[in-house]
Amino acid sequence: MIGRLIEAALRHRLLFGLIIGLVCLGGVIAYVRIPKDIYPDLNAPLVKIITENPGMASEDVERLISFPLESLMSGAPGVTRVRSESTTGDSVVTVEFDWGTDIYKARQIVSSKLELISGRLPLGTTSPILGPVSSRMGEVFEFAVVGEEGVELALAGAAGETGECVEETADLVYHLSVLMQARGFGWDDVVERLRKRHGG
Questions:
Q1: Which residues, at least 6 apart from 24, have a Cβ–Cβ distance to it below 8 Å?
Q2: Which of 138, 143, 147 is nearest to 191 (CA)?
Q3: Confidence (pTM)
Q4: CA distance 165 to 154
Q5: Which conformational region is residue 151 in: left (phi greater than 0), alpha (psi within -120 to 50 degrees), or beta?
Q6: Sign of the alpha-carbon dihedral angle for 187, 43, 129, 124
Q7: Most distant CA atoms of the chain, gap in Å
Q8: CA–CA distance, 94 with 101 (Å, rounded to integer)
Q9: Could you tell me if 88 and 57 are in contact, meaning their C-beta atoms sit under 8 angstroms apart?
Q10: Strand ranges across the sheet with 46-52
């Protein structure tokens, strides 16, 4: 087969030269038109749903808040995967959409679905809110606070509500990246609160 192809190429040099030239030209055109970005989007569109019920145990959060939200979002158009993280008093549900889906269209779909369940959540549950537009590349930092009461109170004060991001548990890993962005405060606010509390 290869021998016949080589023989045909030698016999019809002009034709094969033209074919190779067209292929090269098509490659150059495709390269010029392909979108380029310094930080390309490496994941499908993600929408995070943040729901809180202060004091509710993580098992109850999973059963009464996270699971109903996951079930509701699984049937939304364009959704490929739904996952959740449930901690004491907090539920974060991540909805992943098909590649190429406009992120704002995805958020609109999620918002319309949330209207169907908002009134059926347990008593004391805040209305679900959407996290900021972000990607997996933005989730690069997690930290732990172990048995530091002053730090816990400082973080709670920075959040604006006691216990909103912090629970009085000795060994608890705090996943604050999403919640901090949703509340509109950053690490500078946390550092400032710590300095004021400890007189630094």
A1: none
A2: 143
A3: 0.52
A4: 11
A5: alpha
A6: negative
A7: 88
A8: 15
A9: yes
A10: 79-87, 90-97, 46-52, 129-130
SS3 76: coil
Query: CA 172 to CA 52: how far, in whole Å?
Result: 17
Q: Which positions of the chain have pLDDT values less than 70?
A: 37-43, 134-183, 185, 187, 197-200
Q: How far apart are CA 113 and CA 110, in angstroms?
A: 5
Question: Which residues, other chains included, contact 154 with Cβ-Cβ below 8 Å and sequence gap of 6+?
Answer: 190, 193, 194, 197
Q: Phi and psi (nearest 5°) for 90?
A: -135, 140
Q: What is the pLDDT of residue 21?
A: 92
40-136 topology per CATH: Alpha-Beta Plaits (3.30.70)
Helices (H), ranges, the chain: 2-11, 13-33, 58-61, 67-74, 103-114, 149-159, 177-183, 187-197
Which amino acid type is present at position 34?
I
Overall size of the chain counted in residues: 200
The domain limits of the chain are: 2-33, 40-136, 141-200
CA distances from residue 34 to 26, 39, 64, 100, 108 in whole angstroms, order as listed = 12, 15, 46, 15, 28
Q: How many helices and strands (H and E) does the chain possess? A: 8, 6
Instruction: Tell me the residue type at 79.
Output: V
Q: What angle do CA 127, 132, 135 make, to 5 degrees?
A: 130
Q: Could you give the CA distance from residue 98 to residue 84 in angstroms, rounded to a whole number?
A: 18
